[in-house]
Amino acid sequence: MGQIIVRLDRMMADRKISLNELSEKVGVTTVNLSKLKNGHVSAIRFSTLTALCSALDCQPGDLLEYAEDA
Amino acid sequence: MENSVKTKINTFGKVFRIITTVFIVCLYVIEGFLLLGTVLSAAFPKDAVVVDVSAGVDVKINNSYFDIDNGKFSAVIGDGKLSLGSFVSDKVKVKADNGSLLVNADFSDCHFDLSDIMMIFICAIISVAAVIVALYFFRALMKRFEKCETPFEDEIIKKMRTFAIALIPTLAVSMIAKNMIGNVFSYAFIGDTSISIDMLPVAFVVVVFVLTAIFRYGAQLQKEHDETV
Q: Which of the 8 DSSP states describes residue A43?
């Protein structure tokens, strides 16, 4: 089975926004955002995804990507 | 987890750790007295102390109140001895008299010497030691509860499982020791021995194992919760 890759780092680089700024806008701690960015989480709440999409002005598909196992 | 809930769990762990420690200390004191008793009973010849029990019981079941048929009691009476299935006792005499059932239990000839008393001490020492070991595992569990952030963590599950497993030999040893003590008395009084199994401690062990399984599932849910942002 493949896996979901979080492209948060790419979107943050595109929007030129730091982790601290995003943390303030989204209301999620930098620790949790860092975990999300590095793929160390197993689930994401719809509320968090909504807040991220709102803060980064993007779609969920821009943040999440499905990749087949090599 | 809410801070007040965490504080309650920590307090629960602290209180039970202290209670368990007090219990362990008390059991060590009891163990000391039992050891002293064993040493003293071993130091003297076995006829240095002899306990003779003089007791007898007469029971008469009156036919005027109960419908007693002699034939029905032939299996119980046997050759004038109490006979219930495989249990036959020389010291309990039973006879049917004019429709009444007379039961006479005469314990006047039973006595214990120091070897019997030493046997009881040794069994009690083993039994108490087994309980102390189980209490140590319980105390380690409570210590973890005292410091935990959440009760659903791997360390608590491990300690709970260890405690549950430790209860099995504790239960077995206690039961064997208790049966041996009981048999010293029952052999002296009724001339027979028997084995009994207490279901309450067995049920307790089962409950601890079930709790471990529930906590394991709780830990799994906690992990999922922690990994969700």
A: B
Contacts of A22 in chain B (CB under 8 A): none
pLDDT at B176: 86
Residues of chain A contacting residue B229, judged by C-beta atoms under 8 Å apart: 28, 32-33, 35-36, 41, 43-45, 48
Q: Are strands B81-84 and B56-61 parallel, antiparallel or unpaired?
A: unpaired
A20-43 per-residue burial string, b: 16 or more CB within 10 A, e: under 16: eebbeebebeeebbebbbeeebee
In chain A, residues with a C-beta closer than 8 Å to the C-beta of B227 are: 40-43
Q: How far apart are CA A55 and CA A70, in angstroms?
A: 33
Where do the H-state alpha helices sit in chain B? Answer: 3-43, 74-77, 114-147, 154-190, 199-226
User: CB-based burial of residue B151 (10 Å sphere; 0-12 exposed, 13-18 middle, 19+ buried)?
Assistant: buried
CA torsion B145→B150→B154→B157, rounded to 10°? 50
Q: 10 Å Cβ neighbour count for B205?
A: 17
Under 8 Å between Cβ of B216 and B153: no
Whether the predicted interface score ipTM is above 0.90: no
Secondary element (H or E) of residue A46? helix A46-56
**For the segment B58-68, what is each residue's pLDDT rounded down to a tens digit?**
777 776 676 65
Cβ–Cβ contact A26 with B under 8 A: no
Convert the pLDDT of each residue in B84-141 to its tens digit: 655 566 667 777 676 677 777 766 566 777 888 888 888 889 989 999 999 999 999 9
